[in-house]
Amino acid sequence: MHTDDRLVIGGREFTSRFILGSGKYSLKLIEAAVRDAGAQIITLAVRRANTKDQENILDYIPEGVTLLPNTSGARNADEAVRIARLARELGCGDFVKIEIMRDSKYLLPDNAETIRATEILAGEGFVVMPYMYPDLNVARDLVNAGAASIMPLASPIGSNKGLATREFIQILIDEIDLPVIVDAGIGRPSQACEAMEMGAAAIMSNTALATAGDLPMMASAFRQAIEAGRKAYLSGLGRVLVRGASSSDPLTGFLRD
C-alpha cells in the first residue's frame, strides 16, 4: 500500500479504512475493533453517551479515536439537527453521522430529510457524514448540501447480507467526488474486500464482528480484507475482457508460426 494513502474526511487524515458502527456494543467489541481491526473512527448513538443509569460508552473508547455520533432515532431533519447539537455539547466533537429513518421495519434512510439536515448542520460547521440509500441524484444533492462523505447502505442494517446495492454504489463511486463509505449490511470480510476493490473509501461494520464466534479473529480478518481490497484497487485491477479469451503465455504466437 502506498505510504501516503490516507482517508481524508473533513480535513482530518486517517490511515485505517475500517469504521466501527453503533449497532451492538461491548467492551470486547471496542477493544477488538481498535486493536485488531485498526478502527480510528467509532460511531456511537448519543443516547449511549448521555445516560447516568447505564455504562457510558465514552469511558471505553481509547484516546485518539475519533468519535462519530449518529442521529439514530431521528424521524426527520429537525430531530437529527437537535441530536447533533446535543452531541457537540456533550463533547463528542464536530463529526456527525446523519441517520433519519421513519420506517421502523426496514430502517431505510429518508433521503429527502437527510439532505435537509446535512445542509443545516454543514452550515453550522459540522463534518457531516450522511447515511443514505444509494441514489445518484440524492448523492449529488448531498454534495451540494456540504456533506464531507456519503455513506450508502449495502443492504439493510444488521442483515449481514452484503452488497445487495452493489451496482448503485459503483455508480456513486464513479460519479461522486467525496469519500464513499459503504455502510450497513456488510457481513463478511470478502464482502468488505469486494467493496474496497470497487473503489470504496472505507467500510463501516458492526454486526459482522459482534456476532462472530471469535471476535478478535474476525476483526483481524476485516482489517486484512479491507487492506487487500484497497491494494487491489490502487494497483489497477485487470480489465474484464468482453469477447473471447486471451493467453497469458507470450510464446503462444511464436509457437503458432
What does this structure look like?
- The structure is a single chain.
- The chain has helices at residues 27-35, 46-49, 77-89, 111-123, 136-145, 166-175, 189-198, 207-210, 215-235, 252-256, and strands at residues 7-9, 12-14, 18-20, 41-45, 66-70, 95-98, 127-132, 151-152, 181-183, 202-205.
- Helix 1 packs parallel to helix 9 (215-235), helix 4 runs parallel beside helix 5 (136-145) and helix 7 runs parallel beside helix 9 (215-235).
- The model has no long low-confidence stretch (mean pLDDT 86).
- It has ten helices and ten strands.
Short description:
The chain is of the alpha/beta class and 257 residues long.
Give the tally of β-strands.
Answer: 10
State the helix count: 10
Largest sheet features: 5 strands, parallel
Query: Which structural class should the secondary elements be placed in?
Result: alpha/beta
Q: Which regions have little confidence, pLDDT < 50, spanning 5+ residues?
A: none
* N- and C-termini, Cα separation: 42 Å
**Helical percentage:** 25-40%
H and E string: EEEHEHEHEHEHEHEHEHHH
Rg over alpha carbons: 20 Å
Q: What integer is the average pLDDT?
A: 86
| Beta-strand percentage range | 5-15%
